[in-house]
Amino acid sequence: MSKLLFAETHEWAKVEGNVATIGISDHAQHELGDLVFINLPAVGDEITAKETFCDVESVKAVSDVMAPVSGKVIEVNEELESAPELINSDAFAAWICKVEVTEVPADLMDEAKYAEFIK
Q1: pTM listed for this prediction
Q2: Residue 93 maps to which CATH number?
Q3: What are 59-89's pLDDT values in tens digits?
Q4: Residue environment code for 47-82, b if the CB has 16+ CB neighbours within 10 A, otherwise e
Q5: Which residues have CB under 8 Å from 83's CB, separation 6+?
Q6: Minimal CB count within 10 Å: which of 27, 54, 69, 75?
């Protein structure tokens, strides 16, 4: 069974067993504006919840992307290297990476709580 969780920093993690697919929320991509570049993590990188694991550049600014969970990067969405604007088109389909999870913080929000948080 998978569960979709959100961090206060506007990243999402779809956790399925011990693997989490990570991306930025639709709210975040809307706030950032048109994305023109993404600096992806590398396969094998260890990421730590609440710490920067990659960054995105929009027409407005460069923004850090914080890890919603801790673990080891096992796959990256290389399609984003040449087409970061896919995140603007569909923030949930355009995932950034997949991680073998070692920790899921207890303070992540479900969809309903996140919807309230961004109001």
Answers
A1: 0.95
A2: 2.40.50.100
A3: 989 999 999 999 999 999 999 999 999 999 9
A4: bebeeebbebebeeeebebbbbbbbebeebbeebee
A5: none
A6: 75
Q: Give the separation between CA 32 and CA 60, rounded to whole angstroms.
A: 7
Find all residues with CB under 8 Å of 54, minimum gap 6, and list them: 38, 39, 40, 41, 64, 65, 96, 97
Query: Would you say residue 89 lies in a domain?
Result: yes
In the chain, which residue ranges form alpha helices assigned H by DSSP?
Answer: 26-32, 79-82, 86-89, 111-117
User: In the structure, what pLDDT confidence band is assigned to residue 2 with cuts at 50, 70 and 90?
Assistant: confident
Cα-based angle 61, 75, 39 (whole degrees, multiple of 5): 20
